[in-house]
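Hi V.,

You were right to ask for the full record rather than a summary. Here it is.
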Amino acid sequence: MKVLKLIAAPLFASALMVAPVQAAEFPEKPVEMTVLFGSTAQTIAQVLADEMSKELGKPVVPVFRPGGGGAVGYTQVGSAPADGYSIVWNSNSVSTAHYGGNMKLTYKDFTPIARISVESLCVGVKGDSPYKTLKDIAAAAKKSSNKLKVGTAAKGSFTHVTAAAIFGEMGIGDQVIYVPYDGGKAPTELMAGRIDLAVQFPGQFVSHVKSGDIRMIAMTADERLSAYPDVPTVKEQGVDVSLSMWRGLAAPKGTPDAVVKKLEAAAKKATESASFKSALTKLSAEVSYLPADKFGALIVQDDGRLSKVMDELGIKKEPKS
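Predicted structure:
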């Protein structure tokens, strides 16, 4: 028996030495989701995080990091460990923040996880405004010596770039002053008469449209939105501009494929939930899921288009830091 014990002990020790070390199952702790903007972006992010938490078994915690047209949040996530515990609720802003000169980081510094939704912008005017169409705006701008005041988000943001593209295409780019507002304040300023019109996401206008205080006169989507069938697109009104905001998730470059797949699957499951679909409908956004590979291809294509548009508008800058 003593001999057997002496033999068995080394064999057991050897087995322990050659046993493969199992990688920790992701996630072992909460995942932090950086949110770059307020208003509808922040609301959708919260619902998405709640649904993903159910699937992952660990909390997905939204952390609001605004500033620099997205640059503050992208910089935070871009410098975080590539382990999947720091992700960003990203958008076309990854390109506009770079080409607007706010950050050196580009889409290449992030690993795409999934596209989640798409939102079109709309041109809104005060409820009692004489402007009914884009042609009305163009005619007024050309007749008056006073420049039109247009409310958008920060300079170089997606709303600013889109607005500049629209009015530039209309031939009145020189007659417009862009007034930047953070936190969805443009609708309030519009109703107060401090600006002439605003280019924002429909979700920011919904309650005011219902009350009659704001009227939407154009959408930037390719086709009319089912939620607003009476609002014509910019293209329908003879202005060749079609730009929409996609929103999705990305992680720092180099995040392991297995981790990305886990996050991708959780995101897909979230977009299929009734609560998420309902929330987006109320915010005038559309569920538009794309897996990591197709999302990545879209980002490359969109980056090239935004680079060109911003260059043509004369607002493309070299980033300082």
